[in-house]
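Internal ticket - ligand job 425, pyridoxal-5'-phosphate:
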Amino acid sequence: MKGFLADHSKGKEIRGGAFSTVKEVKEKIKEVGEEMVIDSTLGVLFDEERKMATFASVWDGYDSLERHQKAGYAEAMIGNKDFLDAVDKWVFQGIEKEFYTSIIASAGGSGALSNTIWNYLDEGETLLIPEICWGAYSLMAQEFSLKVGKYMLFDEKNSFNLESFFEMAEEVMRKEGKVFAIINDPCHNPTGYTMSSREWEKLIEGVNKLSEQGPVVILNDIAYLDFSFKSLKEARGYMEVFNNISEKVLVVQTFSLSKSFTCYGLRVGAQIGISKNKGVLEEFRRANEFSCRAKWSNVSNGGMEVIPHIMNSRNIMKSYSEERDGFIKLVRERSEIFLAEAKTHDLPLYKYVEGFFVTIMVDKDIIDGIHEGLKARNIYTIKQSKGIRIALCSLPKRKVAGLAEKIKEVIDEKVMADKKLKCAV
Ligand code: PLP
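stdout (structure tokens):
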């Protein structure tokens, strides 16, 4: 007999991840008090008093909107024109574009990812992702009945592993005649790695060559773009490389207002199609507009006011930059404390350049044990496939100080206990 669930939904369940740990952390805080708990789970910016950062330059503008602006539908399924133009200006500031763009408003960065993956891969095809990455990519692959291929993120010199990327991409091209790969850069979640412009150049050179055999879609997830430690313009410098993409390469950037403008709950983002071919972008617009209609219809009208509101006033733009710079300085200071202490205590980290997160290298078989061991000391982190993620964005400096040593102790205890167990066997 048929069950209620559709076959494709059977067995689906979200396990682990940041949101499921949040409940546990809250309970622990109730039990022992805020100061006793180290909560480094969520990729959300907090100040030194553990208050969520909400930029006045953003929220004063939102609060000044008329009721009908917040309550009303958007102008179009693909978003309001002012918003789409502002995203174009925002993302490509400082870039001399020699490519076309097509921009579609989405329900956060997640909506942008989900729409793009849905419209460019058929059931059974492969989504290429880094082996260390944000967990939702795999969930999306599962949602759309896709296979997942993983390329190694780092090579032995701790640079972007172009060899592994192309090995996987060529195999997928050989089997499926098309490649779709995610590159989460800059400020990669969970490692904090940012590729150099040279790495991007080599990537695009190789991708252009590969596209002689079939279409290549590069999804550049830029959710953390505005929390690069570089200036807004410098952080975007690598995008010049898109001037050199071949006609058989489509780049889709998935942009999110969540982190850039401290408005996670407004659920606004954008898909940015980048191509040398207008026809490819026309197709992009049609397919994705259809998906918007079929999934969320249109995104928050008030939320879309955020970027034009900031960009259209020099004073507000100045305040936004000051607020953002202040928090970037704070995250940088937190990272400096953690990195220095990790070095002192021999805690191995993946290559960190900038941004919200840092990840400790941990052997696959002991990750669960370490994660539990940390929880027993009231330290809440996020498990990765090959490490433990610390969200520096949410930890005050006083809690970052000493953390590397505590984690190292837990790792050493676990390694010792495992050795003893093996000897006893
Ligand atoms: N991409 C990455 C790597 C993320 O970590 C996140 C959020 O945590 C997103 C995209 C999507 O963000 P949102 O849907 O909140 O805009």
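Auto-summary: The pocket of pyridoxal-5'-phosphate is lined by residues 43, 108-110, 134, 184, 189, 221, 223, 256, 258, 264, 269 (CB under 6 Å). The longest helix spans residues 314-344.
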